[in-house]
From TrEMBL:
Annotated InterPro entries: DASS-Related_Transporters, SLC13A/DASS
Cell compartment(s), UniProt: Membrane
GO molecular function: transmembrane transporter activity
Origin organism lineage: Bacteria, Bacillati, Bacillota, Bacilli, Bacillales
Protein name listed in UniProt: SLC13 family permease
Sorted UniProt keywords: Membrane, Transmembrane, Transmembrane helix
Protein's organism: Macrococcoides goetzii
Membrane topology field: Multi-pass membrane protein
Main location: membrane
GO-annotated cellular components: plasma membrane
Pfam families the record matches: Na_sulph_symp
Transmembrane segments: 7-25, 37-70, 82-102, 122-148, 160-181, 201-226, 247-264, 270-290, 302-324, 344-361, 368-384, 390-413, 425-445
Amino acid sequence: MRVDISNRALIITISCLLFAIYIFTSTDFEYLGKISVILFVVSLVMFVATPLPAALVALLLLTLGVLIGLPKSLLFGSFEQDIIWLMIGAFIISGMLEKSGLMKRLSDWVLNQGHTRKMNRFIFIASQFISIVIPSTSSRAVMLLPLYEQLVKKLPQHKTYYSLLFPTLILMGSNLTLLGAGSHLIGMGLLEAQNKNTLSYFEFLLFGAPFGIVIGLISMFIIRLFTKVKHEQIEHEYIAQQHYSIIEKKALLIIIVTIVLWMTEWLHHMDIAVLTLFIALIIMLPLFNIMTFKEGLKYINWSLILFVAAASALGSLLVTYNVVDDLQQSLFKTLSSMKWMNEFYMMLTIITISVLSHLLITSHTTRAIVLIPGFLLLANLFQLNPTATVFLALIGMNYCLTFPVSSKSILVFYEADAGFTSRQLMSLSLILTPIYIAVMMIFYYCYWSPLGLTL
C-alpha cells in the first residue's frame, strides 16, 4: 500500500520532530513538563498548518500524551470542567431561541435595516449590551451564534467578516464590566486578600467601558479592512409579525429570567454553569412544550464540546507541570535586576506580558490565577500601585485572538462552519495585537492616569 505524503506535511513533521529533540536535549524541564511543551506547540502548529479538524487534533495529541506518560485523569477529567456544562446548557437555551422563532424575528429585523452599515451598528450595540448582562464569554458567543448563522445565510459573501467580527466584539466587550470575565473577579479577589484597594463594579465600569467600546470600534474597522468587504444594500423579504406566539412568549420569559439570574450571581451565589444547565433541562420538560430532550441535544455542537475539553486540557499542561511557573520566575528575576525601569517601561512590560500571555496559557481564568500573583510581587518590588497593576494586567489578558484555542468564544464560531481559517485568525491578530497594546498605552496616559489609576 502506498501512502502519499505532501512536501508540506513532511516539512511540518520534520520540524515537530526537531523541536521535540531540542526540548528533550536542551531544556531543564521535568519529563512531563517536556511532554507538555511539545504537545502544546505541536497542537498549535497543526491547528494552523494542517486541514485536520481541530477537535481531532486536540483529542489525538491529548490521547498520545496519556499513552506516553501523562495521567489518564487529564483526558477523562477534562469533561468535568464547568465550561463544558455551561456551554452545553447555553447551546440548548440558544436552540430554544431558534426553535421558538425569536431569533428568526430578530434576524429578520436586522436584515430589514436595508444596508450592511446599519446592520453592523446594531451588531456592535447588541454585542456591547450582551457583554454587560451576560457574564460568560462562552454564553455570549452561543447566544449570538443563531443570529450569525441567519446573517451568513443571507449574506454568504460576508461570511468571513461576520465570523471574525462576532467573537472579536464579544472578547473586546469583556473589558466593559467587572463581570465581563471571571479573571476580573479573581484579580480583585487577590487584591482583597492582600488588603489592597479593589475596584467596585461601577469603578471598573468607569475605567473599562470606554476602553472596551473604543477598542471594539477599532477592531470592527480593522476586520472590515482585513476581509475587504464593502457595505451594500440588502433586499430582504420581511413579513412583519405583530403578535408573539405562545411559544415565543414562553421563550422570551425564560431568557429574561436566565439573564436576570446570570446578572445576580453575586446575590444568589448559585454556580452559573449549574444554573445554566438546570434552566436548559427545564426547557425540555413537556410542561413547557418548547422542545423535546432529543431536539435539545441536536442543538449542541458536540464537536466543539470535544474540542474545548481536549484543548483546555492541552492548555493546562504548561501550568500543571510548572513550565509557565519556571518561565515566569526566570522573567521576573530578570526584571528585578533592572533597577533603571521607570513608569513607562513598567507599564509597557505589564501590558505586553499580559496581552501575550494567551499564547502560553489558553484559559482566561488560569492566566489570572498564574500571573496576577507575579504582577503583585512585581508591584511590591518596584513600589507600584497594586490596583493599577492588576487592572492593566486584567485588561491585557482579555486579548486572546491569535489561535482558535485561545478563547472559547472563538471556538464557538470556528467550529460552527467558520468563514475563517486558523491562519487568517493569526494574521488578523498580528495586526490587532500591537494596536491593542498601543490603545492601552494611550488610555493609560490620557484617561486612566488622570482619573487616578496610575502606577
